[in-house]
Amino acid sequence: MSSAKKNYARITTKTLQEMKANGEKISMLTAYDYTLGGIVDQAGIDVILVGDSASNVMAGHETTLPITLDQMIYHASSVVRAVKRALVIVDLPFGTYQADSKEALRSAIRIMKESGAHGVKLEGGRQVKESIERILQAGIPVMGHLGLTPQSIYKFGTYTVRAKEEEEASQLLKDTKMLEEIGCFGIVLEKIPADLAGQAAHSISVPIVGIGAGNKVDGQVLVLHDMLGMNKEFSPRFLRRYSDLNKIIHQAIGQYSADVKSLNFPNDNEQY
Ligand code: KIV
Questions:
Q1: What is the pTM of this model?
Q2: Catalytic residue ranges
């Protein structure tokens, strides 16, 4: 194992396996549009997730459930047009893969064909095994997602930490192994105890990317707007804010408005 960071010109699912084998951590962030997708890519993030969190972040819904396949394809194709290096993965939205595996494959094919993304992510373990297998058989890379799976929020009833009890923890470890065995290239583990996430990461060879799952995993993912401090209300313990864009944007817009009203904008150099 070496901690040396290699310069990868283009990130693929194979690169991620290599990074795990070499002990290099994987950086992953969400993006939903062309402009921010381009900035995230140029800043050197390894994986860009066009998450169904777009339902909350971009559309203001309370949950991820309402976003549609067409809307995900719109967001994903905007991001893909901006990205030169990162691997772009797209969430299959709620209701597009659970009913049967043929529908799951049709949904995944639409994402790949119409957005140009490099793979899909979907939530769940054994319940969606057949859907994942069918998508994989078509040559589409799949990332799993276990632990707190927001599309099941009405089953959980709360966004609290998952798999604290023995039974759920042991099922999560079995599902992790199963996802590796059927051929997923990676797995997101969301909001579970750090030791359990570490145990999962050690027990399989494909990378595990955590969100609220501690530092014993192979990489980290956050929602871009949360880590940039765009959203003041959402403050879970796992979230580190790297900026206060809410304040910065607020100040800039306030200054612009004041300049317009005081005739300070535009000045002589800013007109024809
Ligand atoms: O939709 C999303 O943003 C996600 C991440 C939280 C992993 O699934």
A1: 0.97
A2: 190
